[in-house]
Specification:
alpha/beta, 18% strand, Nucleotidyltransferase, domain 5, disordered C terminus, metal-binding, 6 helices, five-stranded mixed sheet, 202 residues
Length: 202
């Protein structure tokens, strides 16, 4: 069972991102403040859940959270400032959108660019330890998946409806055979014939 929050003294928001390792599309981030007594047995790290489970949890989180927000950085921003900084910026944008300002932040992962005047802790695999980070991971993932599914309508050759922009073998082959779409990250290269993913900004 995941813990509700990292600390109980201050009003805390959990933060996570989705889409860092993708070839195409934005990186999304979410910030979520849950009630102190929030409990939900099925809530877990989004990567441990099925697509259906995430979609079922999303409206519950959005309804029950004290505050939540989702934001993104697009492919052009990723190319300009690199994927790590874009992930931090997307998180900052999500935090800024919260209608209730948190007093403390818990970030999934081991690095973060400090948000002005709000202390934070980075938690490795935090989305599998704390409910607020798990909730943020689900919102970031589901909102990004929805965005990529909508893009798929205009760019069906890349099969974003299924791979959501991640570097599957079929997606890499499509890039090599068809070329880049307007939504591909140009600083992420696909090699041929090994089909290995490289990022110039890693």
């Amino acid at each position: 069972m995941l813990l509700n929050c990292y600390q109980e003294e201050f009003l805390e928001a959990g933060c996570d991102e989705a889409g860092r390792g993708c070839l195409a599309g934005p990186v999304f981030a979410a910030a979520v403040i849950l009630p102190k007594d929030f409990k939900f047995e099925g809530l877990n790290d989004s990567k441990q859940l099925t697509h259906q489970q995430r979609d079922e949890l999303r409206p519950i989180i959005e309804r029950e959270a004290l505050a939540w927000a989702v934001a993104s950085c697009d492919h052009e921003e990723i190319d300009r400032i690199n994927i790590l900084n874009a992930s931090f910026l997307a998180m900052h944008r999500a935090i800024e959108k919260l209608h209730t300002q948190p007093q403390y932040l818990v970030i999934d992962g081991n690095r973060f660019k400090a948000f002005p005047q709000i202390p934070h802790s980075c938690i490795i695999k935090g989305d599998g330890k704390y409910l607020n980070i798990a909730a943020a991971s689900i919102l970031a993932k589901t909102h990004r998946d929805e965005f990529m599914t909508n893009l798929h309508i205009d760019f069906p050759h890349y099969n974003w409806q299924q791979n959501k922009g991640y570097p599957t073998i079929a997606h890499r082959k499509a890039v090599i055979e068809i070329g880049l779409s307007p939504f591909h990250r140009k600083t992420f290269n696909v090699s041929d014939p090994q089909l290995e993913l490289f990022s110039k900004n890693a």
